[in-house]
């Protein structure tokens, strides 16, 4: 009798695809999870033939936080305190996506002023996120100085966030129905000061890094992904716009009044690291334009919260005088509000690409399920296609160019 | 001929690399005379914006009575379950008791290992008892020290740079070490 075949448990995909150790010239190298060029805790299992990459297998899960599951435990309004912790470089955008999704489900109209404020802060956040990318990407390729200048500018943006929301990274400033507080007095001057010097800063970046011949030779023709492949992999954001696809959620499915702003979507056609670099640099310039326009619209005053009895906490003076208002305050603060039964998908253009929220409500005061379509996760999945046949040193350039945030990949 | 053209190309490349590198260096050099961006904290004070959400403080009213009435609303609003309260009744007259109401918090703890500083407790508090201060220096040696009790949170108010206690509140402030925060509010 034939013995039964032993089935080896294959707990991970990488085990299945691991090459034959006896194969002659190939060798497997682990890049990360503590390697500084992986921008977090990403492990890449690289199969090398000499210095040429034969295969690269991203191994994720080192930063798994279980945030999607935690959201089911929090009340609707409390969820905004953890959405920003997924993609920590683009926290305003993350909050915005969730808020828009729930507002869509509830049918709430956000006031104009809150929308302009959201656009302004999200664009500032895009700038700060791109600055981190610019600094680290240049540093990966050997340019240290750019990192310092980028972080100096980023510090100013974080100061603005601190001024308006009280926190630098995890702001929790956008809530369902609008924003938490109106802007302080010194806010417009701070933003204008930043924007005025930002054009000059971008010019410096061009002279420092873009014009640099060494940087160009490290990036041109490296990590190419064709237009068709980019669409097939489901890429989004600057990564797909570097491959010649003109697709931006802000233009395709406008939200928060983006259709009323005048901006251009930069597209480059080579599909290499250099194209993606240029897309982001041009995008920063467009963001500055949007910020100026949004700042002009913020003149005057107005409500920053939707006129909805359940979303707004009652006025504090009224609450302290009348017992019925007090009871309302107690119920809202302790039990929250319910959201009509239904499910909704809302996507926004984060700094990394299409960030989608699929929110399911069963009519309770907590979400039944929140599923996040994270741009970094999808973009990272195309990494093997980009680095195949490239040199080992180019892998670092490609990782930098798709601008992943591991908190966004793992959730 | 092809060897010669290769050499010319290589020479051109070297010149181009040198030129663009020098161009980048000119940017770096132009930054040298500009103002320093870093602050040598803790020797120098750092600038903090007024809305900054730092370590909480528990407020007292003008008579030095604790504002907290132990309603548990902050604990209910907390997304991270960081607040632990035990309420109690104090039936003594106003002058003798420690709270502004008969009901007061016997135990009030915030676990800063859990707190995410979202400010939802401050929004929820119906008596303005809990507020965000501006302290951000909370390095400790053991996780247990991250749980701050009521006395600590009450004394936190007097550490704020723009708060000075009046004579009614001095007894409490005197019990605590009153080192003011090394910050400038903007």
Task: Name a few traits of the molecule.
heterodimer; A: 411 residues; mainly alpha; Cytochrome-c3 Hydrogenase, chain B; 3-stranded antiparallel beta sheet; 18 helices; 48% helix; 11% strand; B: 186 residues; alpha+beta; Alpha-Beta Plaits; 2 domains; two-stranded parallel ribbon; elongated
- Count the DSSP helices of chain B: 5
Task: Summarize the amount of helix of chain B as a percent range.
Answer: 25-40%
Specify the biggest β-sheet of chain A: 3 strands, antiparallel
State the end-to-end CA separation of chain B: 70 Å
Span between termini of chain A = 49 Å
- Structure class of chain B: alpha+beta
Strand order of the largest sheet of chain A: 1-2-3
The name of the CATH architecture of the largest domain in chain A is: Orthogonal Bundle
Counted beta strands of chain B: 7
Element pattern of chain A in H and E: HEEEHHHHHEEHHHHHHHHEEEHHHH
Shape of chain A: globular
CATH architecture of the largest domain in chain B: 2-Layer Sandwich
- On the 0 to 100 scale, the average pLDDT of chain A is 87
Work out the number of β strands of chain A: 8
Q: Under the CATH scheme, which class of the largest domain in chain A?
A: Mainly Alpha
């Amino acid at each position: 009798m034939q013995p039964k075949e032993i089935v080896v448990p294959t707990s991970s995909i990488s085990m299945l695809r691991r090459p034959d150790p006896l194969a002659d010239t190939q060798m497997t190298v682990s890049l990360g999870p503590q390697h500084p060029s992986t921008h977090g805790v990403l492990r890449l299992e690289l199969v090398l033939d000499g210095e040429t990459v034969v295969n690269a297998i991203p191994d994720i899960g080192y930063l798994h936080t279980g945030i999607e599951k935690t959201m089911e435990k929090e009340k609707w309004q409390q969820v905004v305190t953890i959405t920003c912790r997924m993609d920590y470089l683009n926290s305003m955008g993350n909050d915005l996506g969730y808020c828009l999704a729930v507002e869509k489900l509830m049918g709430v109209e956000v006031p104009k002023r809150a929308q302009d404020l959201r656009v302004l802060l999200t664009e500032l956040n895009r700038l700060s996120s791109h600055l981190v990318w610019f600094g680290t990407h240049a540093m990966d390729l050997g340019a240290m100085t750019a990192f310092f200048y980028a972080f100096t500018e980023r510090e100013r943006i974080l100061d603005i966030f601190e001024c308006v929301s009280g926190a630098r990274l995890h702001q929790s400033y956008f809530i369902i129905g609008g924003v938490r507080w109106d802007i302080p007095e010194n806010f417009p001057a701070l933003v204008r000061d930043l924007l005025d010097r930002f054009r000059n800063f971008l010019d410096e970046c061009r002279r420092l890094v873009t014009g640099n011949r060494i940087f160009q030779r490290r990036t041109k023709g490296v990590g190419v992904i064709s237009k068709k492949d980019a669409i097939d992999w489901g890429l989004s954001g600057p990564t797909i716009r570097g491959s010649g696809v003109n697709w931006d959620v802000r233009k395709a499915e406008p939200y928060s009044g983006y259709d009323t702003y005048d901006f251009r979507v930069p597209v480059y056609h080579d599909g290499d690291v250099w194209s993606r670099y240029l897309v982001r640099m041009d995008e920063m310039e467009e963001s500055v334009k949007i910020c100026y326009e949004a700042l002009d619209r913020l003149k005057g005053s107005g409500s920053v919260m939707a006129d909805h009895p359940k979303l707004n906490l009652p006025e504090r003076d009224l609450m302290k005088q009348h017992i019925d208002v007090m009871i309302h305050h107690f119920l809202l603060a302790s039990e929250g509000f319910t959201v009509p039964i239904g499910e909704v998908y809302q996507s926004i253009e984060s700094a990394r690409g299409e960030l989608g929220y699929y929110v399911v409500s069963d009519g309770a005061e907590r979400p039944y399920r929140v599923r996040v379509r994270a741009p970094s996760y999808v973009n990272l999945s195309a990494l093997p296609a980009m680095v195949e046949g490239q040199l080992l040193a180019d892998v670092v350039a490609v990782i930098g160019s798709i601008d992943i945030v591991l908190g966004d990949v793992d959730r | 001929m092809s060897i010669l053209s290769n050499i010319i190309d290589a020479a051109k490349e070297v010149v181009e690399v040198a030129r663009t590198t020098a161009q980048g260096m000119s940017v770096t050099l132009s930054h040298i005379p500009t103002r320093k961006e870093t602050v040598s904290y803790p020797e120098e004070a750092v600038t903090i914006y007024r809305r900054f959400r730092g370590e909480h403080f528990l407020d007292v009213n003008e008579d030095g009575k604790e504002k907290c009435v132990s309603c548990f609303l902050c604990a209910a609003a907390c997304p991270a379950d960081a607040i632990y309260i035990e309420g109690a009744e104090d039936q003594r007259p106003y002058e003798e008791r420690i709270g502004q109401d008969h009901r007061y918090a016997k135990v009030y703890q915030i676990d800063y290992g859990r707190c995410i500083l979202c400010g939802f407790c401050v929004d929820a508090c119906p008596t303005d008892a809990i507020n965000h201060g501006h302290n951000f220096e909370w390095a400790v040696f053991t996780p247990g020290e991250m749980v701050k009790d009521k006395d600590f949170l009450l004394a936190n108010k007097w550490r704020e740079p723009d708060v000075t206690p009046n004579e009614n509140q001095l007894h409490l402030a005197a019990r605590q070490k009153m080192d003011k925060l090394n910050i400038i509010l903007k």
